[in-house]
């Protein structure tokens, strides 16, 4: 906890410095064209009303927009359309806690720009804003060949079907299915990961469960490493969206 508090003050300091620098720059130069706006992008594309609703209710839309405005590392969003959400078993979303909804949406966001060309060379697992990429947590693998981009979470396999939007800061790719993370949707894998237990615990009838390895050793203490690695990005949010960042902090605690 003390470490987190320290981290938090460091982040605040970091973003204050940055804000001052940006204010100075803004005074010196004419305002640039506005940063991309994830809400506007998805609204314009149409067919993303469920994702938009979730992004708004979790405040992740605001976080993304603030991040786009305040950092230059870029953001990649994997966007399932409404028909992907309606393809989920009935009640799937309603069964999630608010925290799980946040994690689900964060799992669709990569805190860096992945261009279409870079899909071929991306190193797996890809770290999303949901955090830990260990098996049973939030692994996301992307492979590409011959113009086809495959994505697997260990629970679902899907493909990128369309580029919705791409500039030098933001890339939004439509995916055919909702990316379900193991941590939430494959409890057997999640339970097996921290302490490889009886392999029989892995439920074969779990809908959509893959055959991925479930015995990879994992560090429970690693819950904080996602935060540490993400703190630069987080730092950029904080000055402008303290409330939003607290949600993320809570999630990782
Ligand atoms: C982003 O777009 C939405 C919808 O078009 C708008 O309501 C919102 O104010 C915009 N946000 C920013 C930061 O410009
Ligand atoms: C982007 O950030 C600057 C301060 O750095 C702020 O003045 C501006 O209103 C922000 N723009 C949007 C669209 O949020
Ligand atoms: C993508 O998935 C399809 C169908 O499972 C498979 O045939 C193809 O080889 C995969 N391509 C890559 C690059 O993983
Ligand atoms: C993702 O790729 C890594 C490295 O190749 C592999 O160890 C891991 O099992 C894969 N995870 C999934 C869910 O496919
Ligand atoms: C996903 O694809 C991999 C490799 O093609 C396969 O082994 C696995 O069973 C698939 N998982 C699901 C959930 O379809």
The biggest beta sheet is recorded as: 6 strands, mixed
Assigned CATH superfamily of the domain at 38-186:
FAS1 domain
Assess the beta-strand content as a share of residues.
Answer: 5-15%
Question: In sequence order, what are the helices and strands, one letter per element?
Answer: HHHHEHHEEEEEHHHH
- Shape summary: globular
The chain-level structural class is alpha+beta
- What Rg, in angstroms, do the CA atoms define? 18 Å
Count of discrete alpha- or pi-helical segments spanning 4 or more residues: 10
Question: Could you name the ranges where pLDDT drops below 50 across 5 or more consecutive residues?
Answer: 4-13, 15-27, 195-253
Q: What's the average pLDDT?
A: 76
Function: May be a cell surface adhesion protein.
Region (Disordered): 191-224
Keywords: Cell membrane, Glycoprotein, GPI-anchor, Lipoprotein, Membrane, Proteoglycan, Signal
Family: Belongs to the fasciclin-like AGP family.
Brief write-up:
By secondary structure, this protein is of the alpha+beta class.
């Amino acid at each position: 906890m003390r470490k987190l508090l320290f981290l938090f003050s460091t982040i605040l300091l970091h973003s204050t410095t940055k804000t001052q620098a940006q204010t100075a720059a803004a005074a010196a130069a004419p305002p640039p064209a506005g940063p991309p706006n994830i809400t506007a992008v998805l609204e314009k594309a149409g067919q993303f009303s469920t994702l938009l609703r979730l992004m708004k209710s979790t405040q992740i839309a605001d976080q993304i927009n603030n991040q786009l405005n305040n950092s230059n590392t870029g953001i990649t969003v994997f966007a399932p359309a409404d028909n992907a959400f309606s393809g989920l078993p009935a009640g799937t979303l309603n069964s999630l806690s608010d925290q799980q909804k946040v994690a689900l949406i964060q799992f669709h966001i990569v805190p860096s720009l992945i261009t279409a060309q870079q899909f071929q060379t991306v190193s797996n697992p890809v770290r999303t804003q949901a955090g830990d990429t260990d098996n049973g947590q939030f692994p996301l693998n992307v492979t590409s060949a011959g113009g086809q981009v495959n994505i697997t979470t260990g629970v679902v396999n899907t493909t990128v079907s369309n580029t919705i939007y791409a500039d030098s800061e933001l890339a939004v790719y439509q995916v055919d299915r909702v990316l379900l993370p193991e941590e939430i949707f494959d409890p057997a894998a999640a339970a097996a990961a921290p302490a490889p237990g009886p392999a029989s615990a892995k439920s074969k009838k779990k809908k959509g469960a893959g055959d991925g390895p479930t015995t990879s050793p994992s560090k429970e203490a690693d819950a904080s490493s996602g935060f540490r690695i993400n703190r630069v990005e987080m730092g950029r949010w904080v000055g402008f969206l303290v409330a939003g960042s607290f949600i993320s902090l809570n999630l990782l605690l």
